[in-house]
Design a protein that fits this description.
Largest sheet: 6 strands, mixed
Distance between the termini: 59 Å
Helix content: 40-55%
Number of domains: 5
Oligomer: single chain
Structural class: alpha+beta
Strand order of the largest sheet: 12-14-13-15-16-17
Strand content: 5-15%
């Protein structure tokens, strides 16, 4: 074959979760928002191999191997890039098209594009059935009864699957889709004795889209008051439909995440009601609980997630599970307390958009929600009750990935429960998989053999790493520090700028305007920095980390991988008490880096001028060069003086 199409490579990457792949080779354990393992590439007893589900990269603090999922397979299976793609495609059940694969008019191709075309056409047919056919009358009457207007029906693509057992087969034959692809798409169900029948019959149909807005499947609701079967039937797992990775209406809601964060509801009608009420950040899992994959998907475009589940026992349990999942990936979480017996849809129908929007504005912090629920179940006046209440909240705090966030939460809990902070920190430290313990007064020392990373010290000692220095102090230590002796000062500055711009969009946008590409070196770190700045300059900063992780050369370079995995400027959650200070420190660090980059450039120019002066025989030219050297020396003095005042 001439090569694997880029769209297939991207599909393989998207469907090959790096944690799951690596778990097939070595035991993996989650700590905070990362996963850890003993490195599969060198012998060690203490885990130093870090995996980031969010960025889909790995980095070993011991042997320094790093990269994305393709790099891992290349190294582990001793294959080239194409071989790695093929192995992962086979694992994910993805067909890589070979030369000579049948095209239009031949045997239908088992590719995603063919399935996307099919699902789009079927969605249009269901919509037509709802709008125009006699068979769609029950659907139209049901929607009218719920006061859902035509424009909402069109916006969300609602349709109707007519009764009968072979309507889909007959439609497929008419439009060039045979039984095999209809089965593959989950539109038909095979009979035990042979033959097939329609999966969706006499049901209101909701098209389900992926994050790019492509129809990948359907959820169909019966309209019977007392149905014999399931109330909802969903598309099964197919090459394009993976319920654990889908959030209903994500492509509608994503643009509202930046301002409002994401809102998680339980069902399609809840999402539709929220959007009608102007709460356009609403999405819903598709036939499954809220998962780490959902959380990681949201983390790409939101820092905050709010849960609006039914106010019953099942809804409360789902909220508690979902809070833990959200906090584990570094999202801030809140919970909407719906009135008993209500869901967003019923609240909208009873009270209108104002009532629903008002309730959604009253979201509580997730930890406060957990505390309130625990207080309602245990006696807060008794010692045993306070202990049980504290343990319930600590179970959630233990999922938080950042030590400072955990410490702040424990201090808050101590005030709420009148329990000693030390006791709460000790209880938190004893919890399984929780690396948190109250930060010591002096800086924590990394134990011997910990693998070289600060996170490894957390894993081995249970202590938080030493507090990070002020941003200006960190930048000031770039040049001439013991750990960087002999290194290129410009490279060190660029590495810090890469760290800053990967974690702060505003700084990346500013730097894109201030720092021309030609001033950045051609090293892997410099190329990575230019990639981030190019994205920021084009308004696509949110894609920078993904594209950097996907770059086969850059993602495998240890300096770049270290920043992706363990940046010094990873910000706390937006609503964290330290968020404003962290942003200010980052801004000071960027300004200091720019000053020092100017100094590095000036030193290089001064060295070149001195070299030229030493070899110049012409007195006039030598005098001119001497004047230039003197000017550069004065400028260097000014820059150094300015740096010392920071």
């Amino acid at each position: 074959m001439a090569g694997i199409p880029d769209r297939i490579i991207e599909e393989v990457r998207d469907r090959s979760d790096i944690v799951t792949v690596i778990e097939g080779y070595t035991p993996v354990k989650r700590r905070g928002n990362r996963h850890w393992a003993c490195c599969p590439f060198h012998n060690e007893k203490t885990p130093s191999f870090a995996i980031s589900p969010e960025k889909q990269t790995f980095y070993c603090f011991g042997c320094k191997k790093s990269g994305n999922v393709f790099h891992f397979i290349q190294e582990k299976e001793n294959v080239d890039f194409v071989g790695a793609v093929r192995l992962l495609a086979q694992r994910a059940g993805i067909v890589i098209p070979e030369d000579g694969e049948a095209g239009p008019g031949g045997t239908p191709r088992k590719t995603r594009d063919r399935l996307f075309d099919l699902m789009t056409a079927v969605a249009a047919w269901y919509q037509q059935q709802l709008r125009e056919s006699a068979a769609g009358t029950p659907g139209r009457e049901y929607l009218a009864k719920r006061n859902i207007p035509d424009e909402v029906v069109r916006q969300f693509g609602l349709g109707y699957a007519p009764g009968g057992w072979d309507g889909m087969t007959r439609w497929g034959a008419k439009h060039g889709y045979d039984e095999a692809i209809l089965l593959e798409a989950g539109l038909l169900v095979p009979r035990e004795g042979g033959g097939t029948y329609d999966r969706f019959r006499d049901r209101l149909v909701f098209p389900i889209w992926d994050e790019m807005g492509r129809v990948v499947g359907f959820s169909a609701r019966t309209l019977e008051a007392k149905p014999e079967g399931a109330k909802y039937i969903n598309t099964p797992e197919t090459p394009v439909f993976h319920k654990g990775r889908l959030l209903y209406a994500l492509h509608f809601a994503r643009t509202s995440f930046k301002e409002h964060g994401a809102l998680i509801c339980e069902g399609q009608f809840d999402v539709i009601a929220c959007h009608r009420a102007g709460v356009t950040q609403a999405v819903a899992p598709q036939g499954t609980a809220f998962t780490e994959t959902h959380a990681a998907l949201l983390k790409r475009s939101s820092e905050v997630v709010t849960f609006a589940f039914d106010a019953d026992t099942a809804g409360e349990k789902a909220a508690l599970r979902s809070i833990a999942v959200a906090l584990a990936v570094g999202l801030s979480a809140r919970v909407v307390a719906l009135p008993p017996g209500d869901d967003p849809d019923s609240l909208f129908r009873r009270g209108g958009p104002e009532a629903l929007a008002a309730v959604m504005r009253q979201a509580r912090d997730a930890l406060q929600y957990v505390l309130d629920k625990a207080r309602s179940q245990h006696d807060p006046q008794s010692a045993e009750g306070r202990t049980l209440i504290a343990e319930a909240v600590l179970a959630i705090i233990g999922e938080m990935p950042h030590p400072v966030g955990r410490a702040a939460a424990v201090q808050w809990l101590a005030g709420e429960t009148a329990l000693p902070e030390d006791a709460l920190f000790a209880s938190l430290a004893r919890r399984k998989n929780s690396p948190a313990r109250r930060p010591p007064a002096s800086s924590a020392q990394e134990p011997a053999g910990a693998g070289g990373g600060p996170a490894a010290a957390v894993a081995d000692t249970g202590q938080a790493p030493a507090p990070r220095r002020d941003g200006g102090a960190q930048a000031a230590a770039i040049l001439g520090g013991p750990s960087l002796a002999g290194s290129d000062p410009a490279l060190a500055v660029e590495r810090m700028l890469l760290d800053l711009t990967l974690h702060y969009e505003t700084l990346a946008v500013e730097l894109a305007a201030l720092l021309p590409p030609e001033r950045i070196g051609g090293t892997p770190v410099g190329r990575a920095l230019n990639l981030v700045l190019a994205h920021a300059g084009q308004g696509e900063w949110a894609l920078a980390a993904h594209d950097l992780s996907a770059d086969q050369d850059l993602a495998a370079h240890p300096d770049v991988a270290r920043v992706l995995m363990d940046g010094d400027f990873t910000p706390p959650a937006a609503d964290h008490p330290e968020a404003v200070r962290a942003a200010a420190r980052a801004r000071r660090a960027m300004k200091d880096c720019l000053s020092r980059l100017d100094l590095v450039m000036l030193e290089r120019e001064l060295t070149a001028k001195n070299r030229e002066l030493a070899g110049e025989a012409d007195r006039g030219r030598a005098a001119a060069l001497a004047g230039e050297v003197a000017s550069l020396v004065r400028r260097r003095h000014e820059l150094r003086a300015a740096a010392h005042t920071h």
